[in-house]
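Teaching note: in complex prediction, the entire set of molecules is handled at once rather than each chain in isolation. The prompt given to students was simply: 'Predict the structure of this complex.' The entities are:
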Amino acid sequence: MNHTTTSPSFSPSLWNLACARLVRDKIGMLSLGIVLFFILLSVGSFTGLIAQNWDEEIAVNYAPPSFLDTSKEHTDTVSRPVIARQQINLYGLHDPLSAVLNQIELAHPQDTMPPNDEKKLTHLLLGADKWGRSVALKTIKGSETSIMVGLIAAIVATCIGTVLGALAGYFGGWVDDLLNWFYNVFTAIPYLLLIFAIAAVLNQKGVTTIILILGLTGWTGVFRLIRAEYLKHRQREYVLAAKAMGASHYRRMFIHILPNTFHVILVQLSINVVGFIKSEVILSFLGFGVPVDVVSWGSMLNEAQNELVLGIWWQLLGAGAAMAILVTAFSVLTDTLRDALDPKVVA
Amino acid sequence: EAAPLKVLHLSLSAAETGFDPVMTSDLNTAAIEEQIFEPLLTYDYLARPVKLVPRLAQGMPVITDHGKTWLFTLKKGVYFSPDPVFKGKRREVRAQDVAYTIMRFMDPKNRSPYKFLVDHKIVGLDQLGERAKQTGHFDYDANVPGLEVVGPYQLKIHLTGTDYNFGHAMAQPMFGIVAREVIENYAGDTASHPVGSGPYMIGKWIRSASISLIKNPNFRDEVWQFTSTDPSDQDIIRRMTGKKIPQIDEVDLQIVEESQSAYLSFLKGELDVFGVPGQFAPIVLSGNQLKPKLKEQGIQLTRLVDPAITYYFINIQDPILGGMSVQRIALRRAILMSINDEEMIRVIYKGQAFREAFPIPEGVNGHDQHYQSLIQYNPKEANDLLDAMGFMRGSDGYRRQPDGGPLYVKYTTSLTSQDRDLEEIMKKSLDRIGIHFVSEKLKFPEIIRAERQCRVAMRLSSWIADYPDGDNFMQLWYGPHTHENNASCYQNSQWDKLYEKTEMLPDSPERDDIYKQLARLLEIDGVTKVSTSHIRNVLIQPWVIGYKAHPILPSTWSYLDIDTKQEAH
Amino acid sequence: MWAFFIRRLLQMIPTLLGVILLVFFLFNWVGGDPAYILAGKMASPEDIANIRHQLGIDQPWYSQLWIFIQQIVSGNFGDSWATHESVSHIFATRLGPSLVLLIPMMVIETVSAVCFALLVSVFRRSILDQSLMVLSTVMMSISLLVYIIVGQYIFASWLGWFPVKGWGDSLWRNLTYYAPLPIFLGLMVSIAPSLRLYRTFILDEINQDYVRTARAKGLTESRVLFKHVLKNAAIPILTNLLMSLPGLLTGAFLLERFFAIPGIGREIILAVERSDFPIIKAATVYVAIATMFANLAADLLYRYLDPRVSLK
Amino acid sequence: MNKPLLSVQHLSLFFKQGDTSKQVLNDISFDIEKGQTLALVGESGSGKSVTALAIMGLLPEDLVSIDEHSTINWHDQNLTQLSRQQHRQLRGKKIGMIFQDPMSSLNPVMTVGEQLMEGITLHLSLGYKEARLRALELLSEVGIPEPNRRFDAYPHELSGGQQQRVMIAMAICGEPQLLIADEPTTALDVTIQRQILELIKQLTNERHMAVLFITHDLALVGEFADKVVVMRHGSIREVGITRTIFKDAQDPYTRALLLCRPSLAHRPFHLPVVEELLAAPHHGIEPQRERVRGIGAMDQVLMSVKGVSKRFPVTQGLFSRTYFDAVKDVSCTLYRGKTLGIVGESGSGKTTLGLMLAGIIPMTQGHIDYHQDLHNVIGTAQLIQIIFQNPYASLNPRFTIFQIIEEPLLLHFPDMTRQQRKQEVERLVGLVGLSSTMLSRYPHEFSGGQRQRIAIARCLALKPHILVCDESVSALDVSVQAQVLNLLQDLQDQFKISLIFISHDLSVVRYMSDEIMVMHQGRVVETGQSDHVIQSPQMPYTQNLISAIPKGYLL
Ligand SMILES: Nc1ncnc2c1ncn2[C@@H]1O[C@H](COP(=O)(O)OP(=O)(O)OP(=O)(O)O)[C@@H](O)[C@H]1O
Ligand SMILES: Nc1ncnc2c1ncn2[C@@H]1O[C@H](COP(=O)(O)OP(=O)(O)OP(=O)(O)O)[C@@H](O)[C@H]1O
Ligand SMILES: [Mg+2]
Ligand SMILES: [Mg+2]
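The expected output is the structure of the full assembly:
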């Protein structure tokens, strides 16, 4: 089998056309630039090139943002009284560890507790969170998780929706009835409860869980559209022609029809990305957020929830603005893509 | 011309669960019930440490027979609030009602969360409960030898054994006296028909949103006459003494779950009293003082140590952390040594907590303020200890079991944002000593289930006093309480024997000495490290008179007054 | 017409069965065991067993399922495990606040989104159109959580224009005093998507041939828009609106929590936190039925509004 | 001579395309006198509709720019200079317009009456009652039966012809002086087409309206127009009185349009094609020798169809289903190397029959016998192939031409190497007259005729014995239609393929077929030798059909 014939690629000319249309659209290009910038950031942080040290507590708690001078240092000189273990009253009880501890203390005298004199910054570019971690670095690191969650979950949702939609729309009959029933059941359950239920089933909290929650709840929209597309296309004459030519079901479904729904899929994909990046915030609010060693915009916004009244606005601003910018850019890009890929819109 | 209505506006952080005292388990509901129902005893408003005083009882009970027989005499002329069930007649509270109230706790249908306060304690009552479980019907007419109605106003309670804490049980709002005909009339829906003898009764009630309490017209004549030697109380005493209870016409309670909303409401004057959540302390406090801006507005601050502790426990039956071998003890101690409570107090609790090493908090009988912890924050020593015990670091920098097996701490938390902070603390701590952190997040009911099944490896738990006695805390590690609330599943016969000894003792120096040993033994075995006690900061609007935070009483609204002129201002 | 109606009603049965099974098994298998909470701090294993017996969760799954189905058929879901309040009463009382929030929100959202959509589709490709579209994209990119936190802080606390939170029992006061800020904040996120959707609906219609015919008749532009275009665009707009209603009922939980509004969304979260299974079951069944009926209503409306479709 | 009613002078018009603009009309000038019918003729995309819309002022302003020297004079007003408001006042009142597709041009959610009343109240300032009376009058004037009942009907409840009548009523309700009819009948059946055109003619005569009649079909023009303007690529090729144009067309393009449509009188061996005619010297090309069609006694029966029916289930009511018989008991025979033509109005079951014969949908009843030579290919794609009605729709838009033509090879000759397949594809492409340099292009990059050729090449790849052509040329311009018909005949000559040729266009079917089968409501009405059926139809239905064929000027 050779490549050109079995894997129908996008029509280079259609694709070129779409690109050409995109390039002409200034706002579209700007948003593409922004999206690429964010993706670059998240790839950079994923590979550890940037924001690797986001969890270092480099500043004092809630260090305010400063754009001029970030070099002021503050020495935390809380001296802690150290009570020698020997002075502690055991009330006549025996400590099985005292022998070991005595040895250790002989080898490394413990009485000089290292004074906590780490130098910490008092100001930071975008301020610091409650642990003194840089909000700027967290925002960058958060982009990695948020974009990854958004992308992978959107891919999962879109794949499920596409495959099921294709099967239902193409075969019709009982396959359609069954899948439609499944769809109806899923859409009839309140979204909120569905989230809780799926979260409870998965029961393991982590980025994967978030991706699965979003993916498993988000496929319905794709399913509906793809099913409709397949219903439309399976009656199209090019499909009948393929049938007359002796093409198998598989071939008709995936090699003939699928490429013709790419524009729908692509647009759904990016709509899902946007939706899921936003949903992650709500999931964090409901307690299904990312684990502690990971930072995401949702977890930042949730932390920031109580900070605004304290007058600490920078974390809210950092994560909120980054998210707003990316999501806006992505949505605009989606719109542009939709127009550019829509065969109906003639330039 | 009628005086303006005095309305106290308050918020609750969680929705009420319905007002049948026997079924109540949460503090918010208890706070409301405290105003509607009256138990036999209560705590003095001003006295610190807290002191039991009579409420429905005429005087303090007469305790005889080594704390086994308690004779209560009721006040006369105490009436339930009006209800259609009474058909327009005034219904007086009698000894029979007290007996009925107590019996209800053993009725399996009521599934009372506070059953433990009378369970196995009253002669003949358990048998009645057992029989009800079999027959499905609780016989309230049965004669219970332990609840001897001596006269219309006298009840003699016979306990199965010595219990000096029984008085505390009789001061709980859940033991507020109810009338049998009311309960039976509203059977199945008692939670929405509270009828008690307290100063207030339910007015308007929008479930889960707002509850308004209005004066009980049948409330007896009672005047404010608390005394105290504390100089800071004198102003309250001066302004309140001699006033009729209650002064406030209506208590308006709103359920506000998000603390930002509650705080902003208070600032706008929509709320009169606001318990500051820890994370908001920096905006209202500088050091221990109210911020000058708030002070200028006349807002008052009262502070109080909560009779509660937070404590880390490690499950002694956990396959990785449990066991009583020296290695495992060392492992647990090292883990507990790696936790920096000071940092937690500073960053998470915003300074509104302090390091408390003793399992019995301040304000509770048996507390020891000089107790020093054996387990101190010392990651260096913890590391040395782990090295010495053979928990070697692998190539990834994390330690393994001496036998090469995997080593990690599965740390259980709930789903709130505060729990995320706790996870962060724990993760940082474990990183200091090179042990893997594994997070387990569960809904609160699931945590409790897991704890009771000894499946929680480690957790930061907290315990708030049900009644101000050390026993309420120490029982948390009692071996037979495994699968109940001994979540560390600690079973040490030496410890258990010492504990059983304390149960037979009243609050005394002798008991305090044993408590110290118990506390130390917990540390030696690396089962628990008591972490903090918290400071409760309450903000009060300038027009609220007579407010003093009480460590045990869930609400004291009937003791307050409002300066309506100032409020209007 | 009746045949269509009855067929659609019959089709709901398998869907409802699916919902019931899914929810039952999801929450029965993995949902928490409320007995441990209800039993209180000091409960003994027997106490817990007693509570499980009282709640019926010690019975085998099939009898529980059977009870569940009986409850659905009789419409009586019993009492909440946590508060002993009857489930039907809970929904009856929580529905009001949710609706007081939702209905004005839907009305304002729809009216203003349709107006804006008409406006921008008339001036499409102009600066007005493009800037309004970008603005709406930015608006919908900000998380509702951020709107609430910031909005409550600024409008209720700082500027003091609205109460911070609360709810009363007078409809008028709720509507005019407590609800405006949450409604406004809700609109911030919900108007933009509707506007964009309606714009495409209207643009779809504006490009149709019959619009050209109407213009060829010499009709004024406003008549063309309001009489011809809007009448056609109203079909997808209204059906879309109707179908989104049940989802919104539970979707406003963030607003309900922050503004202390005793609505359904908040109740459901509370129920899940407490593993209050009767409420969860009832909520699912009610919302599922509402969703199915909304879909049916949307279908009927669609068929009613669009003379081309006949009821078969 | 009077001043013309409408005078278009030097109209040049541009469409914006991104930063560039495309000229769509180039210096168009013509006049319409009062009461005159002017036909605007030309192939698709030549700018006819744009011209009409420019007059109506209905072009999208943000996309179109009109050259400043252009004038469209209506009495003394220059329409290009009018404000929107002024232009609007002319529309409907002075100039009415009928659009191509009646179904989509009527508002689907408003009743016929409402839509009609709108114009009446606006232009005649009548009260509701009077307006209603007037509307009913108009409806009966345009020949709608039972106007009272139709008044409250929605457009979809009317037949295509009735819809078009409503459109006409709407266009004339303001009693305009000029009526623009933009291809008013392309969506309709021949019989209805004739009725509508006659209605327009009658109305214009009664009301002394001028008509701007737009069409691509010169044959129609001959019967209805006084004057003809021939357009191509946005400019005018020829203007003249109808008679002169038909008798003695000056422009080769005009001549081509006249000749490349098959007529009922002749059957040239090849149809003339526009390019040939354009390239030819002034006096035209050599007359072609006639092609002989018809079934002889010697012809071999390849396939005989016996009693084929198709019944579609239609859901109705709660559980009950009714059935719709799309094809009822059809029998026919197909001869080797011959063409069976199938004609019939829309919905008569032609496509359904074709699909059944091609084995794409199963038949409900009946059976098909094949000649024994074909027994080894029964059930395979090599037996019979079908070319679908719309060539564009039958080509996967995401496949290159190479992939499209290669697919049958890939499916049926798995042993072929890629090299062999490539050669075969190139051969096939050559066969249908396309260049192998086009192989990497996509369907949308081809013209309609080329697409039809691609579809044919794809079918030929399987070397089928029978080829079903379902309305293979109905969507094409006459000039392109000629090319495709020529190609099909060439292939038939070369490979002896049997054709089943489905069309509603009788002249095309006659030209292509040896035998004609006429269908009506799923049944065969008449079958016979093609010339015989056309010249002396037996059944009234067939007679009706044949009389409706536009005869042009010459016939
Ligand atoms: N909205 C538009 N944008 C860009 N180009 C257009 C637009 N409308 C028409 N054109 C171009 O103008 C030219 C003339 O179009 P027009 O519709 O007048 O053709 P026509 O002669 O009416 O053809 P047909 O017989 O197919 O209706 C075509 O090349 C077409 O591509
Ligand atoms: N899948 C189907 N289900 C139900 N009815 C159908 C189906 N396909 C076709 N029909 C009906 O069968 C009849 C014949 O349709 P068919 O497409 O064969 O007509 P046609 O002669 O090809 O018409 P046209 O000239 O418009 O192409 C029509 O009335 C059509 O509505
Ligand atoms: Mg045209
Ligand atoms: Mg057809």
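Point out the following to students. The two ends of chain B are 20 Å apart (CA to CA). The mean pLDDT of chain B is 89.
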